[in-house]
Amino acid sequence: MLNQLKQNALKEIAATKELKGLDAVYRRYLGRKGELTKVLRSLKDLSEKERKETGTAANEIKRGLEEAVGEKRREFLAPSGKTPSLSRFGGTSGKTPPSGVNWLDVTAPGVKPAVGHLHPITLVQRQVEDIFQSMGFSVVDGPEVETEYYNFDALNIPPGHPARDVLSLGRTFYLKKGGLMRSHTSPMQIRYMEKHNPPIRMIVPGKVFRVEATDSSHETNFYQLEGLMIGKDVSVANFKAVIQEFLENFFKKSIKVKLRPSYFPFVEPGFEIDMSCTMCVGKGCAACKYSGWIEMMGAGMIHPKVLKSGGLDPKKWQGFAFGMSLDRLTMIKYRINDIRLFHSGDLRFLQQF
Ligand code: PHE
């Protein structure tokens, strides 16, 4: 008798052409007053032996029918023949929900929603801003499309000046309609001096652009951090103290700072700043090419001509300027070995931050 019931039910399930019909079949056999349900309910009136036999068989048939209904239902829901994933309900623990019912298995492990996050350079930029603000520096912004005047001339790099070729600053993108993409953030030194009276303490984080044959340490587009401090007696010693305080705060360890003579037309004297390697602490490792030192930035005392360009009297005011790459700072902090990863859009890289 049970077997007949099963055969009938399976036939009917197979013959359904739409969800509605399937629901009807489901109710006819497995619903509250369904035929199989009736059998299961009547078990209590049977003898113990019969109850066991009939019960086992009926339960097995119930499972089989539920499976057949579930399969059919998935067929209707995904005409392509693919089984739709129920994972957004938190999984189904391998059970098949009866037709027309979505089971929410509250015991299934949750699926963590993907949340957005900040780019590593943004993280570093914010940290840098915090540190300089705590030392009384303002954070300012400037235009990425610049004029030749601000990018070069006002910074003591007139046309024909060898520095235009010697410094990578000269590898500039010029725009057809005039102007250029700034090749450093130094133009903001002038723009800021034009509008603010000393004493001045400010930093400019921002994008810069250079024509480059890209490799693991060169990009056409990267971020710089410009710094400017002007007062009546701001000195090289002040610069060293500020930059050491910044680096130690940023890397959260004690750091030595070394000034090497260097040349930039907009400073005199000019330096290149090295810091003791954050990884080997000066002993020598692959990161610092076994020198114990890492090159960090260009800097110097602002050239009198530059102060004049900015409208300040070099007899009254003096100060320092520095410029470093935020990309480089980020690479050292997170031990990233290829600058091109920053703009690669590679999620395997970005999702690590
Ligand atoms: N603007 C220089 C560069 O991009 C860096 C620099 C800034 C050097 C300020 C000295 C003073 O290479």
From TrEMBL:
Single GO term (MF): phenylalanine-tRNA ligase activity
Coiled coil ranges: none
Name of the protein this chain belongs to: Phenylalanine--tRNA ligase alpha subunit
Residue ranges, annotated region (Disordered): 72-100
Keywords, comma-separated and alphabetical: Aminoacyl-tRNA synthetase, ATP-binding, Cytoplasm, Ligase, Magnesium, Metal-binding, Nucleotide-binding, Protein biosynthesis
Binding site for Mg(2+): E268
Catalytic reaction equation(s): tRNA(Phe) + L-phenylalanine + ATP = L-phenylalanyl-tRNA(Phe) + AMP + diphosphate + H(+)
Subunit and partners: Tetramer of two alpha and two beta subunits.
Enzyme nomenclature, EC number: 6.1.1.20
Cofactor: record remark: Binds 2 magnesium ions per tetramer.
GO BP terms in the entry: phenylalanyl-tRNA aminoacylation
Gene Ontology annotations for the cellular component aspect, listed alphabetically: cytoplasm
Record domain Aminoacyl-transfer RNA synthetases class-II family profile: where: 124-332
Chief location: cytoplasm
Localization: Cytoplasm
Cofactor(s) this protein requires: Mg(2+)
Similarity-based family: Belongs to the class-II aminoacyl-tRNA synthetase family. Phe-tRNA synthetase alpha subunit type 1 subfamily.
